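Chain A, query sequence.
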Amino acid sequence: MKNGSKYIALAASFLVINMYKKLSKNKLIEKENIPRLDQYLNRLTEFYSAEELDLAEDEFLTLVDFGLSPQRAFASLIEDGV
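Chain A, predicted structure.
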């Protein structure tokens, strides 16, 4: 192998490794932390007492069943109260 081709091979492998690292980093950044329904139901315990919790959970699930996103249903439930 000639001297020039060694440098080309080295530079090409360096570029491939850097591109792989960049793509791997982008995949990690793209993931969002959106809570699941059961996590929203668990969060309701922070805002409602034990007596009001069943009513709040029913209202939350009703809003989600009617087509509201879980984020909006939770926010409207916390803003308005039950």
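The first helix runs from residue 3 to 30. The helical segments are 3-30, 37-43, 50-65, 70-80.
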